[in-house]
Amino acid sequence: MPRTVEFPTNQLAERLGHVSILGSLSQRQLKKLAGWVKIVAYAEGETMVKRGEGGIGLFLILDGAAEVRRGSRGLAKLGVGQFFGEMTLFDDLPRSADVVATKASKVAVLSRFEFWGFAESEPKILRGVLEEMTRRLRETNQALSE
Predict the structure, then answer these.
(1) Distance between CA 111 and CA 85 in Å, rounded?
(2) What is the spatial distance between Cα 41 and Cα 64, in angstroms, rounded to a whole number?
(3) What is the reported pTM?
């Protein structure tokens, strides 16, 4: 069962700085963002998100590892500094895949509500999210065209 845990703000801001979509944020902005996220711990083998369920927001992996799966098929392996759930920031559609912790993990969860609250005061975060979504869409298009 996932549980909310504490994470020192300075360490959290440092870890958030290693997430690709947050790379354009300053230390001040990262410390501010640290106040908006909730830290959740998952045990190895625990499902972080389930396909078909509604999403709450963006998950940023601080410690551990996860795998994106559709049924028994692994779609992607994720580690520290990577993220998933970014589409949930923009729509209410159900999750398109399961994400399972492959190691004990701590993730920062940023709900859609919190994301947009933060983005209103720090719009620079939008650039990183949109650049990464575009990159992932291009990769998918390329894979489908081969």
Answers:
(1) 10
(2) 10
(3) 0.85
Task: Determine contact, residues 78/67, Cβ cutoff 8 Å.
Answer: yes
DSSP secondary structure letters along 45-105: T-EEE-TTSPP-EEEEEEES-EEEEETTEEEEEE-TT-EE-GGGGT--PPPSSEEEESS-E
Which residue has tokens 């994470």?
7
The DSSP output letter for 62 is E
Residue ranges of domains in the chain, CATH in brackets = 3-139 (2.60.120.10)
pLDDT by residue, tens only, the chain of 146 residues:
668 888 777 788 888 888 888 888 888 999 998 988 999 999 999 999 999 888 888 999 999 999 999 888 888 899 998 989 888 888 888 888 999 999 999 999 999 999 899 899 988 888 888 888 888 788 878 877 87
How far apart CA 64 and CA 83 sit, in angstroms, is 12
Q: Which residues pair with 79 in a beta bridge?
A: none
**How far is C-alpha 36 from the chain's CA centre?**
14
Please give the Cα distance from 8 to 20 (Å, whole number): 21
